[in-house]
Amino acid sequence: MTHLPRKNMDAFEKVRTKLETQPQEEYEIINAEIKHGGFVYYQEGCCLVRSKDEEADTDNYEVLFNLEELKLDQPFIDCIRVAPDEKYVAAKIRTEDSEASTCVVVKLSDQPVMEASFPNVSSFEWVKDEEDEDVLFYTFQRNLRCHDVYRATFGDNRRNERFYTEKDPSFFVFLYLTKDSRFLTMNIMNKTTSEVWLIDGMSPWDPPVLIQKRIHGVLYYVEHRDDELYILTNVGEPTEFKLMRTAADTPAIMNWDLFFTMKRNTKVVDLDMFKDHCVLFLKHSNLLYVNVIGLADDSVRSLKLPPWACGFIMDTNSDPKNCPFQLCSPIRPPKYYTYKFAEGKLFEETGHEDPITKTSRVLRIEAKSKDGKLVPMTIFHKTDSEDLQKKPLLVHVYGAYGMDLKMNFRPERRVLVDDGWILAYCHVRGGGELGLQWHADGRLTKKLNGLADLEACIKTLHGQGFSQPSLTTLTAFSAGGVLVGALCNSNPELLRAVTLEAPFLDVLNTMMDTTLPLTLEELEEWGNPSSDEKHKNYIKRYCPYQNIKPQHYPSIHITAYENDERVPLKGIVNYTEKLKEAIVEHAKDTGEGYQAPNIILDIQPGGNHVIEDSHKKITAQIKFLYEELGLDSTSVFENLKKYLKF
To answer: What's the pLDDT score for residue 609?
Structure first.
């Protein structure tokens, strides 16, 4: 790997400066920035602005739209798209406490003006028609479901019409513009099946072309280059993602030719297409790789990335000569890397090295689950820690939807490691860390595999000298709450304390309520207990709410959101009340002297599902963990002040 000098401050210095001088909400890196035609479009304060590319780091910018006009509470820009000839720019705007969004369209002129606004937009892209008119395609979200696609034009020929409606309530629609802008793809998906239609980027009023009708269990995504479609799909054996290609004018599945296969236990994180190269971002056996495929000669270069790295952050990139990206970990801010095609080398930013690289260790070990399956874990701790068995341990788990456990940089996690904690990330079945089969082996009537994996991970950690049950804590959010709640019922002696955020705890009753917005979309993950007795009985075996019983439990801190549409508050409240009743009953049976666990339900206002950067939530959770373990929190809160403004 070659070091790449920077003209300005290196990435770590930029991030560190922001961490030390701004509230945490403002440092978090959000990719709401886009380069187009020599300009950079981004958010500055409460405004959508643009500046010339070479002046992007200066105060010399043009204000295009003031977000305060929308009269929202602390709005931020979630996504930006610029029309091909830069007559218009569209931006999706949200707030921290709601999933609702507004898409504003601004006409670019000497005096920029808002041309239109559309509520509840999810994905959106621009194309240009035969008469050089800009056309905006967007999906409309209702009750968390995206079923409708619209197309709109502006100016003298103003129109807004519905283009497509998906009839199957278990599917949703999102839009993606191929890297070369030749086609707009309309992707219709559920958790296991997809169907893609091509909208001609030069003739968007023509009827769309179906690539391949949906086939149950077949997923595919499409890119385009030189009149060929590159298709990332799980069709065929093994049922993991592989890269195929076909001529754009013969897109059906019988014409797909195998182009590149992945190694076993590989997760495809992303794909980026260039003029002469295709770049695959991969996770193989819990390590990160970049594969650069030469499209002229079908050559493949596989680059193993630094072992500290746990996740990619993709950069929006229009430079055909370079492929930039960032690497991150839970305890280290993102660092920039660039693969330069001409040199055939990966360049790393130089500058001040983050001191965490010398003061901490990252380990990758495996636990053997009860069926013999090896479950990967990623562990962080201080290099100078002595007697790790006496150190506090915070275990992370998710294990659902084929999604990886989130391992982006979180300053509060770094502070814990600096204070002597061990962090362990358990990549259990049901997640996606080892590919599609890893997910399949932890969903529907295999969901208990994830629970067995989590139990094996914690026992392996203790067995290898990482902490002990009295100092072990467990954390999860959303669907990760299923495994955590199940473990609290089945093996509470492994844990001292638990923190949960917007947790899914009442699987059975939620999945039997078809009036909830996501129930039909979730059937592929949890099963259909309303019509399938086998699914119903299986869910009863692990559902946290259904299996509460009078016994000793770890202390539990739950953060819930008042108007959360994804995990209704009612189920969390019912779980908490039933759990408290079981604890009271157990205390009566145990007699005097029993130290009952603390069960705290912290209900926050707002309608967002998870508010990752909430100061109040972060401080409340850390305070809870330190109090439950009887630890002195003075130094950790002093260190947190570097990142949070109290």
So the answer is: 63
Q: What is d(CA 443, CA 524) in angstroms, rounded to the nearest whole number?
A: 8
Please state, in angstroms and rounded to a whole number, the distance separating the CA atoms of residues 145 and 10. 41
Distances (CA, A) of 109 to 62, 106, 117, 373: 11, 9, 18, 61
Choosing from 609, 613, 615, 633, the catalytic residue is 609
Residue 72: predicted pLDDT? 85
pLDDT of res. 7: 35
H/E stretch holding 124 reads strand 121-128
How far is the C-alpha of 521 from the C-alpha of 252, rounded, in Å? Answer: 26
Cα(451)–Cα(398) distance, rounded to whole angstroms? 10
205 — pLDDT class (breaks 50, 70, 90): very high
The helix (run of H) or strand (run of E) holding residue 222 is strand 220-225
φ and ψ at residue 74, rounded to 5 degrees: 50, 60
Round the CA-based radius of gyration of the chain to a whole number and report it: 25
Asked if 626 and 470 count as a contact pair (C-beta separation under 8 A), the reply is: no
Q: Is residue 9 scored above 60 in pLDDT?
A: no
Nearest CA-CA partner of 64 in 36, 38, 88, 37 = 88
pLDDT at 71: 87
Bridge partners (DSSP) of residue 325 are 314, 337
Closest CA to 184 of 142, 136, 140: 136
Burial class (CB in 10 A: 0-12, 13-18, 19+), 280: buried
Please work out, in degrees rounded to the nearest 5, the angle formed at the alpha carbon of residue 571 by the alpha carbons of 569 and 575. Answer: 115
Read off the pLDDT band of 50 (50, 70, 90). Answer: very high
Helices and strands, counts by H and E, the chain:
13, 37
Identity of residue 413: R
Strands of 360-368's sheet in order across: 360-368, 374-382, 422-426, 393-396, 472-477, 497-501, 555-561, 599-604
pLDDT band at residue 355 using 50, 70 and 90 as cut-offs: confident
- CATH 1.10.730.10 corresponds to the domain 355-644: no
What pLDDT, on the 0 to 100 scale, is given for residue 30? Answer: 44
Paired tokens of 167: 């009839």
Would you call 478 a catalytic residue per the annotation? yes
Rounded Cα distance, 343 and 320, in Å = 14
pTM for the full predicted model: 0.90
**Cα–Cα distance for residue pair 185/182, rounded to 1 Å:** 10
- Residue ranges per structural domain of the chain: 355-644
Confidence of residue 56 (pLDDT cuts 50, 70, 90): low
Active-site pick, 101, 194, 478, 555: 478
pLDDT averaged over the chain?
89
* DSSP string computed for 193-208: -EEEEEEESS-TTSPP
Cis amide linkage into residue 5, ω under 30° from 0: no
Is position 564 annotated as part of the catalytic site?
yes
Average pLDDT on 273-290 reads: 94
- Residue-level pLDDT at 645: 52
Beta strands in 390-488 (DSSP E): 393-396, 422-426, 472-477
pLDDT digits 0-9 by tens, 29-43:
344 788 887 888 988
Q: What is the mean pLDDT of residues 171-200?
A: 95
**pLDDT tens string 81-131:** 999 989 999 999 988 777 788 999 999 998 999 999 999 999 999 999 998
Exposed, middle or buried: residue 453 (CB in 10 Å: 0-12, 13-18, 19+)?
buried
- Helices within 116-236 (DSSP H only): none
